[in-house]
User: Which sequence fits this backbone?
């Protein structure tokens, strides 16, 4: 990878992936693009920022040509909870941005990274140690797009030789940009709410709902390690299970309460989020990622709680 275009760069993952890529490949070799003006302004403060609607194939191709891009990181998506409110838009946006990424990559000989998700699985998937290759019949439009996207990306690799690679991200915990409407967002929101006066958080996900989670530094490392991996070692491509920790709201809140004794929690369950979280894996088996490209996470829940509380406190006094 020498020149990288990140589309959907102004969101939760992009705002941290762009500086991570800049550190590895140089500021002038990473172009961040987003639909929203405010996000583009922020990208311009830290490097190269461009306004782009990723569903506009011509504008997308023009950017790839302008910057002589050889790698496309496509982060554009409506996430799981928001997608259920606008299923048709979710399909058009998620698949439209992906199809453009793949066609442009084919034309300009780029590699493509598009994240999949734990949302690609559904109720009929084994929930404990979910295998790499297993039943994938998701119950959400987000999941339908992720499964279709995985298949389409593999198709572009086998049919046209496009170097497509992907991971199934767990819920990502971070302290940069706020999460964009997913079912695992509670594991970020709680840190911001709990340090406010009152130290209280109301959770919309059931207390005993286990889901895979990952801290942003591990997620970023996964992306670049996979994209730099020796292709000869890759048996899979789209998309690898990656895991680092699995917990339920109750366990996370107990860990927070150990550090903030007057913290209090209650539940006002969102039926959509409850149904989605119940359909997703409790914990994935990531042995293929470990064997094929050396995946090894560094962060567990207790360390994440310490780091998140410190980072969010620091932000709140600025
Ligand atoms: N955050 C997570 O916990 C998580 C977990 C699993 C998978 N993922 C996947 O990772 C990717 C990025 O997720 P995220 O959390 O950063 O999402 P996000 O919602 O925070 O960011 C998406 C960005 O895309 C931009 N965008 C929307 N429409 C666009 C368009 N037409 N053209 C260009 N930009 C557009 C938005 O302005 C936003 O900045 C998605 O594919 C998502 O499914 C995320």
Assistant:
């Amino acid at each position: 990878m020498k020149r990288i275009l990140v589309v959907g760069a102004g969101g939760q993952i992009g705002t941290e992936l762009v500086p991570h890529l800049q550190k590895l490949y140089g500021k002038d070799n990473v172009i961040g693009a987003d639909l929203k003006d405010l996000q583009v302004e922020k990208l311009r403060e830290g490097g190269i920022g461009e306004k782009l609607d990723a569903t506009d194939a011509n504008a997308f191709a023009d950017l790839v040509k302008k910057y002589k891009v050889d790698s496309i990181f496509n982060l554009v998506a409506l996430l799981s909870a928001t997608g259920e409110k606008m299923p048709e838009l979710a399909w058009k946006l998620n698949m439209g941005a992906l199809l453009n990424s793949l066609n442009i990559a084919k034309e300009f000989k780029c590699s493509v990274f598009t994240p999949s998700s734990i949302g690609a699985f559904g109720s009929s998937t084994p929930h404990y140690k979910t295998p790499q290759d297993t039943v994938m019949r998701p119950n959400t439009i987000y999941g339908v797009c992720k499964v279709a996207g995985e298949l389409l990306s593999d198709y572009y690799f086998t049919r046209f030789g496009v170097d497509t690679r992907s991971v199934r991200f767990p819920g990502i915990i971070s302290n940069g940009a706020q999460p964009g409407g997913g079912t695992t967002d509670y594991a970020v929101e709680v840190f911001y709410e709990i340090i406010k006066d009152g130290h209280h958080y109301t959770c919309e996900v059931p207390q005993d709902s286990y889901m895979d989670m990952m801290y942003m530094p591990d997620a970023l490392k996964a992306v670049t390690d996979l994209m730099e991996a020796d292709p000869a070692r890759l048996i899979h491509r789209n998309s690898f299970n990656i895991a680092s920790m699995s917990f339920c709201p109750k366990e996370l809140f107990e860990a927070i309460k150990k550090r903030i004794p007057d913290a209090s929690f209650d539940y006002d369950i969102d039926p959509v989020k409850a149904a989605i979280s119940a359909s997703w894996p409790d914990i994935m088996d990531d042995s293929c990622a470990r064997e094929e490209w050396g995946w090894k996470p560094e962060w567990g829940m207790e360390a994440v709680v310490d780091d998140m509380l410190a980072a969010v406190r620091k932000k709140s006094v600025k």
About this structure: The longest strand covers residues 30-34. The pocket of nicotinamide-adenine-dinucleotide is lined by residues 7-8, 10-14, 34-36, 39, 52-55, 75-77, 79, 93, 115, 117, 169, 171-172, 179-180, 182, 184 (CB under 6 Å). The chain has a mean pLDDT of 97. DSSP finds twelve helices and 16 strands in the chain.
